[in-house]
From TrEMBL:
Keywords from the UniProt entry: Cell membrane, Disulfide bond, Glycoprotein, Immunoglobulin domain, Membrane, Receptor, Signal, Transmembrane, Transmembrane helix
Single GO BP term: negative regulation of T cell proliferation
Protein name per UniProt: Ig-like domain-containing protein
Cellular component per GO, a single term: external side of plasma membrane
InterPro entries: Ig-like_dom, Ig-like_dom_sf, Ig-like_fold, Ig_sub, Ig_V-set, T-cell_Activation_Regulation
Gene3D superfamilies: Immunoglobulins
SUPFAM superfamilies xrefs: Immunoglobulin
Positions of the Ig-like domain: 7-113
Membrane-protein topology: Single-pass type I membrane protein
Subcellular location: Cell membrane
PANTHER family, A to Z: FIBRONECTIN TYPE-III DOMAIN-CONTAINING PROTEIN (PTHR25466:SF9), T-LYMPHOCYTE ACTIVATION ANTIGEN (PTHR25466)
């Protein structure tokens, strides 16, 4: 498995992550410096847009897009550690897209990080590169 995390520019909050289809998991990075009540990962090209949501009392997956059911994970102490990185398991090409990590405070959603994930498809074993 190869994983590349590259910032789009030095002063940008955008990151690029590339992984091979079938990889067991990938970590989408997101950190913040202050305590919050809710963090939300979204993909705005999907309906519903929610990939994963964590509140003080635990995960809130009521609005989670079914494409991600049972495949997302955040550290149990994410809100305490301020590490809101999301683990996405059982990767497939349809997981490619732009993921937004946001904080929600008093019903206002503020984006922190944007991660462009690209899941490369498997190469056919019978193909020769000569």
């Amino acid at each position: 498995m190869s994983l590349f995390v590259l910032p789009a520019s030095q002063d940008s909050l955008s990151k690029y992550v590339e992984v091979q289809e079938g990889a067991p998991s990938v970590l989408l990075p997101c950190n913040y410096s202050k305590e919050i009540d809710t963090v939300k990962w979204s993909r705005f090209d999907l309906n519903p847009t929610t990939v994963h949501e964590r509140r003080i009392n635990g995960d809130d997956l009521q609005e989670q897009n079914q494409q991600f059911k049972g495949r997302t994970f955040m550290r149990p102490d994410a809100l305490d550690s301020l590490d809101f990185s999301l683990t996405l398991k059982e990767l497939q090409p349809s997981d490619s897209g732009v993921y937004i990590c946001s904080i929600i405070d008093k019903k206002e959603e503020t984006p922190l990080t944007e991660v462009q994930l690209y899941v490369r498809g498997q190469l056919p074993w019978s193909r020769s590169f000569s």
